[in-house]
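User: My advisor, Dr. K., asked me to get a structural model of this assembly before our group meeting. I'm new to this, so sorry if the format is off. These are the inputs:
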Amino acid sequence: GESVGLHLPTLSVQEGDNSIINCAYSNSASDYFIWYKQESGKGPQFIIDIRSNMDKRQGQRVTVLLNKTVKHLSLQIAATQPGDSAVYFCAEGSTSNDYKLSFGAGTTVTVRA
Amino acid sequence: IAGITQAPTSQILAAGRRMTLRCTQDMRHNAMYWYRQDLGLGLRLIHYSNTAGTTGKGEVPDGYSVSRANTDDFPLTLASAVPSQTSVYFCASSVAAGVGEQFFGPGTRLTVL
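Assistant: The format is fine. Below is the predicted structure of the whole assembly, which you can bring to the meeting.
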């Protein structure tokens, strides 16, 4: 079946630099996308979401970009901090499928001091 | 209670035994979900409920059952546990299907021997 995937399983970034985490999806019917952060031993935590009628959405220090043409989603984190070290998951859902979410395998982000 | 709670935190179970994982939320959310998380596979939806009294199958429902007798509780039952059900189980809830973020509980680590 169709699934969400991530381009890279790990990302190492210098503290203070910007981070970019990428995600590819294959279900053209997906119209809702979310980024989650998961710290060790905890449940996933919502970061930001975006619907298919938008191509960019900004939050606090984070920006999500959606390119429907190439089915690509990215999360940008500005001025990365040590507390940003975690596993990041993208997820997709669709109106036609009860918004049930399909998650990617995750990207582990490590922030270097 | 604040948010979502899960019980037990962890459990070691003999194969063939019956086990119920508990999930309670106090946010009056209509939609609730059960996921399992395995290394390298991200989170996979087991079952979900869009409102009290209704349930639906997710991506990996076999070997699991759920009930939603009221808004707050969404127990997950393994009728006869098998080693492949060793995983970390997360319960989540949202205001409604596709509305707002999904809030995740702290997880239950289950080991089936």
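One thing worth pointing out at the meeting: The interface with chain A takes residues 33, 35, 40-45, 48, 50, 56, 58-59, 90, 92, 97-98, 101-107 of chain B (CB under 8 Å).

User: Perfect, thanks a lot.
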